[in-house]
Amino acid sequence: MAMLQGKERAAYVQNMFDRIAARYDLMNRVMTFGQDQRWRRFVIRQTQLPTGGSLLDLATGTGDIAFAALHADPSARVIGADFSVGMMLVGQKRPNGSVVRWSGADALNLPFPSDSFDAVTAGYLMRNVIDIPRAFAEQMRVLKPGGRLVLLDTAPPPDNLLRPFILLYLKYGIPTLGRLISGNPDAYQYLPESTQKFKTPEELAALMRAAGFVDVAYKTFMFGTTAVHWGAKPR
Ligand SMILES: C[S@@+](CC[C@H](N)C(=O)[O-])C[C@H]1O[C@@H](n2cnc3c(N)ncnc32)[C@H](O)[C@@H]1O
């Protein structure tokens, strides 16, 4: 996987998520020691979605962020979009699965009109896309002026005293859990590898600003290994 680039990499990612879909939610809960849903609730608070507002949850997967939005405001209009149909099929079978409007979509070429959404969220998308500026341009395009983008992703382990332990967890802990829980050790080899190669939170914030987002800020969680970024489309 480390060698794959461009469209080959995108096809690998799409196929990988189709394969791990069935155990994806359980694996997330275990791997993050039950913290991941708290981060998704934080993501929803950062959207500042108006009551009954429209939200596009990109890379929705099994819909965790989409469901968190509906939990916070059942009148919200939530579209969950992803290029892995396998992940969305698992999400559709969850309680209230039919309330989310599921849409097959590539984040680099969104099938939505410009200026349509009050907020866009994306959980664990930006580490996977093959063209970050293009993904930001699409997110900017579909947001209404003043609309907010909120991202959740892993971050490379920061340089601190815990770094050796975090590296051990990434190298051995996560692939072992992946083998035991999901039966897909290669997918959970990809997660630590792509995390270590991903942008630092500051670098990602700089790319958001370069894409034209304003009021960009971020907060890190779990010893700096997870980050939530937010910003707005200029009015
Ligand atoms: C780790 S899952 C995250 C699911 C969910 N957002 C969450 O918080 O758990 C990443 C998702 O990103 C999707 N994805 C990756 N690249 C994509 C792209 N270019 N367009 C659409 N979806 C993409 C994958 O199919 C996968 O379902």
Note down, in words, how this protein is organized.
The protein has one domain (6-157, 199-232): Vaccinia Virus protein VP39 (Rossmann fold, 3-Layer(aba) Sandwich), CATH 3.40.50.150. The protein has helices spanning 6-20, 24-31, 36-47, 64-72, 85-92, 132-142, 163-182, 187-197, 201-210; strands at 54-58, 77-82, 101-104, 117-123, 143-154, 214-221, 226-232. The termini are far apart. By secondary structure, the chain is an alpha/beta fold. The radius of gyration is 17 Å and the shape is globular. Helix content is 44%, strand content 21%. Bound molecules: S-adenosylmethionine (SAM). S-adenosylmethionine (SAM) binds at residues 10, 13-14, 17, 59-61, 64-65, 82-84, 87, 106-108, 123-125, 128-129.
Residues in helix, %: 40-55%
CATH superfamily: Vaccinia Virus protein VP39
Query: Ranges with pLDDT <50 over ≥5 residues?
Result: none
Kindly, what is the distance between the CA atoms of the first and last residues, rounded to a whole number of angstroms? 41 Å
**How would the global form be characterised?**
globular
Helix/strand order: HHHEHEHEEHEHHHEE
Strand order of the largest sheet: 3-2-1-4-5-7-6
* Second CATH tier, the architecture: 3-Layer(aba) Sandwich
The secondary structure category is: alpha/beta
The overall strand count is 7
What small molecules accompany the polymer chains?
Answer: S-adenosylmethionine
Overall radius of gyration:
17 Å
Q: Could you tell me the strand content as a percent range?
A: 15-25%
- Counting H and I runs of at least 4 residues, what is the number of helices? 9
Return the average pLDDT rounded to an integer: 95
CATH third-level topology: Rossmann fold
Largest sheet: 7 strands, mixed
CATH class division: Alpha Beta
How many domains in all?
1
